[in-house]
Amino acid sequence: MNSGHPPENPVLATKPIGLTRGIACKDCMLHPLCLPLSLSDHGVDQLEAIIHRGRPLQKGDYLFQQGDSFDSIYAIRSGSLKAYSITSTGQEQIVGFFFPTEIVGLAAVNCYTHPVSAVALETTAVCEIPFARMEQLFEELPALRQRVMSVMGKELRDYQEMMLILSKKTADERVATFLMNLALRFARRGFSANAFRLTMSRNEIGNYLGMAVETVSRVFTRFQKQDRIRVHGKEVEILDPNALWALAGTVPIAMREQDCIPPNCTHQ
User: Fold this and answer.
1) Domains, the chain, ordered by start
2) Whole-model pTM above 0.85?
3) Average pLDDT over residues 234-241
């Protein structure tokens, strides 16, 4: 884990949810959503034996940087991270945001070095899992291998979905897809899908979605006038999820995997 200069704006002020540095996997309230899913108690103990939990990252600390050697993957326990790469022209390109229970670092499995940098956007706790040692457990714990492969497959589908957003969708469709994807991810973790605190800047949203910051602001304003969302400071409330689903034009991956639909949303 490296230290660096803090980014200008945190993505999401997710609250730590009762996790402590020393809590075991089987006692963690995120256990049903994380890598130990479907493992027996013995399997969880085996995984627990290789996990390292260091000090929490502070805002602006690097979990790893683009070009660092690949040794471990990381499960987020609390907080959030931004992943970005530096383009050939020296520009920062945000490629994703990661929240509790999500796995960071899998993009480097076949690269031997990390193709992106991951930066803490707030105080963030992670479980470090040495990948070589985890691979040794795969034969004995096929459920763990299946879980890791599932997460890797989801990352690939996320990338494909983002390419579709950037190449085919209008500005309104991009922002609608972004908001509803976040809503589903929050719902999966027990937070409200219809009201959440979104502290990323319009510039960061634009960077991620391939839009100018002025366009992002215009879309947010238009959605408010159409009573699709309500924005008060950093708080965003989804007023018309059906309209946003219709704009998104597809059911996001998170929904397909979890069969999770925000309250009052009947879009199929």
Assistant:
1) 25-163 (2.60.120.10), 170-258 (1.10.10.10)
2) no
3) 92
